[in-house]
Amino acid sequence: MSETQYGLGALKVFNVLDKLEGHPPRTNFNVFRLDGKYNLRIARVEGRFPWHRHTNGDEGWLILKGRLRIDVEGGPSLEMGPLEGTMIPKGVVHSPLALEEDTVVAVFNVDGFQHEFRDANPDLGAFSENDAR
């Protein structure tokens, strides 16, 4: 039985902090994929991520370490700490802000998740999304 046979992250144990070690904040890793279409990704977040929306799916957030606020255009700001989470519906413009240094999150989304940014040239820092190996 292998990951190749069953998909990303199958039958493997991983440690979130170990996966993120040595990578800059905003580096996202898909640690497993469910049914070939839903990802669990992890990231260390820093500062404010640019205002954006997702055009092809909802985004679920779970704070593993630290504190995060997600500001929502036309809606409430959602402040969360460890083991708290929320879901941002498809199409809702939002902007996450790390309230503490070394905040670590788990994010749930569809594979091929799309970002549409409000600003033409947003500062994404080291943002990337990659499958963890």
Overall shape: globular
As a percent range, the share of helical residues equals: under 10%
Number of DSSP helices? 2
Q: H/E element string?
A: HHEEEEEEEEEEE
Low-pLDDT segments, ≥5 res = none
Average pLDDT reading = 93
What is the distance, rounded to the nearest whole angstrom, between the alpha carbons of the first and last residues? 16 Å
In the CATH hierarchy, the third-tier topology is known as Jelly Rolls
Summarize, please.
With 133 residues, the chain is mainly beta.
How would you characterize the overall build of this protein?
The protein is mostly beta strands. The chain has a single domain (3-131), classed as Sandwich (Jelly Rolls). The protein is 7% helix and 44% strand. It contains two helices and eleven strands. The protein has helices at 3-6, 16-20, and strands at 27-34, 38-45, 52-54, 59-65, 68-72, 78-80, 85-88, 94-98, 103-110, 115-117, 128-131. The strands form three sheets. Strands 7-4-9-2-1-11 form a six-stranded mixed β-sheet. The radius of gyration is 15 Å and the shape is globular. The two termini are 16 Å apart. The mean pLDDT is 93.
